[in-house]
Specification:
Largest sheet: 5 strands, mixed
Low-confidence stretches: 11-20
Structural class: alpha+beta
Number of domains: 2
Shape: globular
Strand order of the largest sheet: 2-8-7-4-3
Oligomer: single chain
Strand content: 25-35%
Helix content: 25-40%
């Protein structure tokens, strides 16, 4: 099956659906089968209450509460890891990026730390969220909520006129967010031609950072995002949603900070990088053959990242090739080091060294990376408790990633089955986006937004019609049968 990019969000509209408890039962079974953590133990909750008492977290000496930080996240988010404020500085820019001070609340070796290591990361399900930290911390005392004074790790990044980083500094400071914004509303301001100065600056920096990414050979996969929209108890719909410009711009700020973090770690000779090897030559050659077979021209000398950016998700053949490109993005992991520089330093998709530091409320490794970077920036020694944990973190994160991915796949399969129950017997249109290990076509339906294997014969990139033979919510299995198949228009015809 091709990789999927899945997100969960609430939806405003009611819709017909299967009997509500069937999906609820399936989600509960998934939690049990995949050993998803449940409620937090009493000792963890008690430790949180103690940690958030006034005066327990050291107050930073630097006060930046007058700068007008703001947050940008999906609609409804409460675990706000990041806040930013941007300014022009001569021909360039100055970006201040505040990251939640989770290290200030979580004592090394204490109950909160131990539970976070067990969980690894926040897990998202269609009907709930299983947080890395108790909500009193992740959605309260440590979250960069509006109109609240919070301690944070503030990154001060100076950029030139091309948005290339010329200097970086990071240290603890007090901040206050003045606005909690979401991608949809910010994008609406842009589309209406009414962005405020902060959004204008975010767009400028985001676009210039994307250009720098292209210039250094970075690659991003334009995979369609499959959204599971929660519309009420037991009620969901599926849709494919293109990413918003505002999301891409925000992601560039986070990527920039992660690259700055990696530089600080490498200079200090200690840290943990997010790494991914370059695609193997055989994988690239296979991908070129697939492009030729689909009639898609890959110009000689064009880097694969630029080629991927040129693909059109609305073109069936391009869409099929995008799914096949997931084979180029394999082997991502965490590489700790303390002393000797690791042999693998870069993340191939970023085309630079990179580290995770911007989401400590939702991802375990970021808490440790923040402390490393603050120490390196100040010229101080990295604390022993951080150094001792570095070798353990890759295994803990790998287990957390495995569990989160398995939950996501199982839950999305269940929702797909639920949505298709009302279409059993019907014929639907789609595109063959992959051939699985047994050569079985994998079809992406146009409506509803389902990706599933189908019985029958078809070629990669074919437009097909499929009959929905069956859909079982309890197992998450759907049965599709190809009724007709035909080659899609070539890209120059589409």
């Amino acid at each position: 099956m091709p990789s999927r990019v899945v997100s969960y969000r609430p939806g405003p509209l009611p819709t017909a659906a299967v009997e509500p408890s069937s999906l609820a039962r399936r989600f509960a079974t998934i939690r049990e089968e995949l050993h998803v953590p449940g409620d937090f133990p009493p000792e963890v909750l008690a430790a949180v209450e103690a940690a958030i008492e006034p005066g327990r977290v050291p107050i930073p000496q630097v006060d930046l509460t007058d700068l007008g930080f703001w947050t940008l996240d999906p609609v409804g988010s409460m675990d706000l890891d990041q806040a930013m404020v941007l300014a022009r500085e001569g021909a360039g820019y100055r970006v201040r990026y505040a990251i939640a001070d989770v290290p200030g609340f979580v004592a090394a070796g204490g109950p909160i730390d131990a539970e976070a290591r067990r969980r690894g990361q926040t897990i998202y399900l269609p009907d709930a969220r299983v947080p890395l930290h108790p909500p009193r911390l992740s959605e309260g005392a440590a979250s960069l909520l509006p109109d609240q004074v919070r301690p944070a790790y503030v990154w001060a990044l100076r950029l030139d006129e091309h948005a290339a980083v010329t200097s970086v500094d990071v240290g603890r400071a007090l901040v206050r967010s003045v606005a909690r914004r979401d991608y949809v509303s910010v994008q609406a301001l842009v589309d209406q031609g009414q962005p405020d100065e902060q959004v204008v600056l975010l767009g400028e920096v985001g676009r210039k950072r994307a250009a720098l990414e292209s210039a250094r050979g970075g690659a991003s996969l334009p995979m369609p995002e499959q959204e599971v929209v929660h519309q009420g108890p037991g009620r969901y719909r599926l849709e494919f949603r293109p990413p918003l410009e505002a999301e891409d711009w925000n992601a560039q700020i986070s990527l920039m900070t992660g690259m700055a973090a990696a530089s600080l770690m490498l200079e200090a000779g200690v840290g943990i990088l997010r790494t991914m090897p370059a695609p193997q030559k055989d994988a690239v050659r296979r991908f070129r053959r697939q492009a030729r077979a689909l009639g898609i021209v890959w110009p000689d000398g064009q880097r694969y990242g630029d080629f991927l950016r040129s693909l059109d998700r609305t073109n069936p053949r391009h869409l099929a090739l995008i799914h096949e490109a997931t084979a180029l993005f394999r082997g991502a992991g965490y590489t700790p080091f303390d002393g000797a520089t690791p042999a693998l330093r870069e993340h191939a998709a970023v085309a630079a060294p990179y580290a995770h530091v911007t989401a400590p409320l939702r991802r375990l490794v970021d808490r440790f990376g923040l402390v490393v970077c603050a120490a390196a920036s100040a010229g101080e020694t990295v604390p022993d408790w951080v150094r001792a944990a570095l070798s353990e973190l890759p295994g803990l994160m790998a287990e957390g990633d495995r569990r989160a991915s398995a939950v996501e796949r199982a839950c999305t399969d269940a929702v797909e089955a639920a949505v298709l129950t009302s279409h059993v017997g019907q014929v639907l249109a789609g595109t063959v986006v992959d051939l699985n290990g047994r050569g079985v076509p994998v079809v992406q339906l146009l409506e509803p937004a389902v990706v599933a294997a189908a019985e029958g014969t078809a070629q990669l990139g074919d437009r097909v019609t499929v009959r929905v033979v069956g859909a079982d919510v309890a197992t998450g299995r759907v049965t599709l049968r190809i009724e007709s198949a035909g080659a899609a228009e070539s890209p120059d015809q589409a």
